[in-house]
Amino acid sequence: xxxxxxxxxxxxxxxxxxxxxxxxxxxxxxxxxxxxxxxxxxxxxxxxxxxxxxxxxxxxxxxxxxxxxxxxxxxxxxxxxxxxxxxxxxxxxxxxxxxxxxxxxxxxxxxxxxxxxxxxxxxxxxxxxxxxxxxxxxxxxxxxxxxxxxxxxxxxxxxxxxxxxxxxxxxxxxxxxxxxxxxxxxxxxxxxxxxxxxxxxxxxxxxxxxxxxxxxxxxxxxxxxxxxxxxxxxxxxxxxxxxxxxxxxxxxxxxxxxxxxxxxxxxxxxxxxxxxxxxxxxxxxxxxxxxxxxxxxxxxxxxxxxxxx
Length: 309
Fold this sequence. Notes:
By secondary structure, the chain is mainly α. The protein has helices at residues 2-32, 37-49, 51-62, 66-91, 98-118, 126-150, 163-195, 199-211, 213-224, 228-253, 262-275, 287-307, and strands at 94-95, 123-124, 256-257, 284-285. The strands form 2 sheets. Strands 1-4 form a two-stranded antiparallel sheet. Strands 2-3 form a two-stranded antiparallel sheet.
């Protein structure tokens, strides 16, 4: 059991390092292509920071343990908003423009509701997984069109990464993520079996917390640099990515049987948390909102521990 716990921790560390490298590569590519920062955060940034969840969930599905992947994806959505954004808000209030987050706000809530509807019959099928992937492609298409419309003009004062550096960061990050995914899935399966913990529960708690570290780092860096829209956009975009692409891909590989009530708890917690992100009349999220999100996270985790079996 000790080796399994150490392997899980090593996998989480590798996921964080791989996610950081991959994030640098992807955002370097965004700067090179002159994609506006807010759109890059919601799409490419979300893709990069969610890459640990993507690889863990895909490997879990291939290994016949889609419950871990589903738990990681939906649990990470709770962590992203109810914990990571809450921490950022406790550091400083954020100014967030409604028009910037409107699309991702609506899709993040709608995707959670859609997954809940798909799971009513006790399984998320391959066809339903394909539907989620199609929804993801529609969302991406909308962002790509907006990026083309707002594409920034060249600015010689803004340093861009060299193509070789972008490629090396991206490839190195992907290699670490593949290694991390294998370690996390194998050790999580062993721990779940040893302690009698449902695979979904360990995926939605411990694994989700570990694979969300890139989102935490990216959001805090953005907030400290005054890029509030980038921080919030990355988290909302990551939630959409997790719900539509990762759950869709996982269930397309292996249909996911829904056992216990953990999924419903996580989806409900994610919807409540995202709802609290909508800014008020002054387009500002204060520390009080951060405290409320922490309460949502604590209640979601406590309820999941009781009802997930």
